[in-house]
Design a protein that fits this description.
Length: 179
């Protein structure tokens, strides 16, 4: 049971907000109920959706890696909505459920990931599981594979989507029936 009812698209009067909701639904993430729930507060929703679309769909970090990290974090938070949601862009780029599952499991020993991707996945899980491990030595390891702007991109992405997962779980939004 969803504790806050999502708006229907025709209930969203603000054209910019409606466009952001449609874009997020076309991408598959953060679309659907999330975008239409936060649309109840239009100015906040526009800012949030702009940031989420920027962090997720743009930048220098591979979109498929971002999608794996997003799902990894959603599974950590036990958020059924974002755990089941899939990016149409990542799927179109060839991302499979097998690789997603590997990224949420024992990715360190997986053949699916490069060393750089393993470090990025470790960054995400340590930010969630034990952020004290993300220290100077860890940043030195990140810098072997990523530029400082890319590290910032990863860190901000992790923070934004982790927060969204926590909110959606608290709203009681169930998993979508199809993805």
């Amino acid at each position: 049971m969803t504790f806050i009812t999502p708006l229907e698209l025709d209930e969203i009067d603000d054209p910019e907000l409606r466009d952001l909701v449609v874009r997020s639904e076309e991408l598959g993430v953060p679309g659907g109920p999330f975008a239409r729930i936060i649309a109840r507060k239009p100015e906040h929703a526009k800012a949030t959706l702009r940031v989420m679309l920027l962090k997720f769909a743009e930048g220098n970090i591979d979109h498929r890696l971002k999608e794996i990290i997003r799902i990894q974090l959603a599974r950590f938070t036990e958020d059924p909505y974002f755990s089941a949601l899939r990016s149409t862009k990542a799927r179109d780029m060839g991302l499979t459920e097998e690789v997603i599952d590997a990224g949420s499991g024992d990715y360190e020993d997986s053949e699916h990931f490069t060393e750089a991707e393993k470090v990025a996945l470790r960054y995400a899980d340590q930010m969630f599981l034990d952020s004290s491990k993300v220290d100077a030595a860890f940043y030195d390891e990140l810098k072997k594979h990523y530029s400082e702007p890319e590290i910032m991109e990863l860190g901000a992405f992790i923070a934004v989507f982790h927060a969204a997962h926590m909110v959606m779980r608290s709203f009681g939004v169930p998993a979508p029936t199809a993805h």
